[in-house]
Amino acid sequence: MSDNIFWHQTHITKTDRQKKHGHKSAVFWFTGLSGSGKSTLANQLEKELFALNYSTYLLDGDNIRHGLNKDLHFSNADRVENIRRIGEVSKLFVDAGIVVLSAFVSPFEADRNIVRSLFSDSEFYEIYVECPVEECEKRDPKGLYKKAREGKIKEFTGIQSPYEIPENPDLLINTQQNNLEQCTELLKNFIQEKLKD
Amino acid sequence: MSDNIFWHQTHITKTDRQKKHGHKSAVFWFTGLSGSGKSTLANQLEKELFALNYSTYLLDGDNIRHGLNKDLHFSNADRVENIRRIGEVSKLFVDAGIVVLSAFVSPFEADRNIVRSLFSDSEFYEIYVECPVEECEKRDPKGLYKKAREGKIKEFTGIQSPYEIPENPDLLINTQQNNLEQCTELLKNFIQEKLKD
């Protein structure tokens, strides 16, 4: 009988996939206030890494909020679940050998630490995108601070709800003191270093 | 002021990523009874596609149940949500340019159609892994049928809970009449054809 052969399974592993893509895989987790520049930086980085032939994917509100997490709202439980799921999806991508750039406010240290706990030390890097709330509010690229001030958005991070500054980020990028080019250069060097064999 | 430049975003697109990987991306959704051979076939296919230099990822119970969907149980609502999330994650991978092989019993037509509705016609293929329940129960690779018969598992698909046979699968593979090699060959040709430009 060939049953045993039929049911014998071998698997392509994370290491196999990393070898194919030509680099290690990891998640670079951008955290910071709305308007601090997380998405802009993550997008710019993806462009640069793509040009260098890295296999990348960017997770942000655009592809998560209306899809996987469209059932979640802004209660505390839902905010925790939001970040938990993004962490688990990041883990799948890392398992697939892909370099993940995740850009979410993720204001609470406890939630960020839950994500970190899913990964080995060399697979998760917390990048704190630092920018004073006054500057973020001045930029207000999505008009969200304005809405928060008008009371149209409740519990907006930085206005009515706290942002817990990372205590030990793997990298800190200040987007008030540095321009996009400088920030990108810093990040590109950091990420390439971490993805080396 | 450089603010406008700082906030100008360009994006790497799905098409960019597909070009980099050298093939289109899509999800091949294996549905069928427990023991029908879904995971075995999906794993074997991933090996073959990997050898042909495709960028692939396999989603199955092993990497979903204890991670992303560990909060879900076996109520009807949870079963729907289980498949919905897997569909959304598949969509992210397809957006990342990856060929996804998903292997889940997914017994209900309505749930499978929800997943299908997330994709364009050329991005989602339903593969019905056909095998009589008697044969699946004889194989019983995980001992689940035995537990279901003993009443240790409730509402087991094929025993106490129905499996809705796909009405119009994109491909039907019968694992009782064909051996692993034959099934794999059929699938490999099918998938390669669908991923051509």
Question: What would a concise description of this structure say?
Answer:
The structure is a homodimer of 197-residue chains. Chain A is α/β, with parallel strands linked by helices and 197 residues long. Chain A has one domain (22-195): Rossmann fold (3-Layer(aba) Sandwich), CATH 3.40.50.
Topology (SSEs and partners):
The structure is a homodimer of 197-residue chains.
Chain A: H1 3-7, H2 14-21, E1 27-31, H3 38-51, E2 56-60, H4 61-64, H5 76-95, E3 99-103, H6 109-116, E4 124-130, H7 133-139, H8 144-149, E5 171-174, H9 180-195
Parallel strand pairs in A: 1-3, 1-4, 2-3, 4-5
Structure description:
Two copies of one chain form a homodimer. The first copy, chain A, is an alpha/beta fold and 197 residues long. Chain A has a single domain, classed as P-loop containing nucleotide triphosphate hydrolases (Rossmann fold). The first copy, chain A, is 45% helix and 13% strand. Chain A is built from nine helices and five strands; from the N terminus they run H-H-E-H-E-H-H-E-H-E-H-H-E-H. Chain A has helices spanning 3-7, 14-21, 38-51, 61-64, 76-95, 109-116, 133-139, 144-149, 180-195; strands at residues 27-31, 56-60, 99-103, 124-130, 171-174. Chain A has a five-stranded parallel sheet, sandwiched between helices. In chain A, helix 3 crosses helix 9 and helix 5 packs parallel to helix 6 (109-116). The first copy, chain A, starts with a helix and ends with a helix. Residues 1-8 of chain A have low confidence and may be disordered. At the A-B interface, helix 1, helix 2, helix 3, strand 2 and helix 5 of A face helix 1, helix 2, helix 3, strand 2 and helix 5 of B.
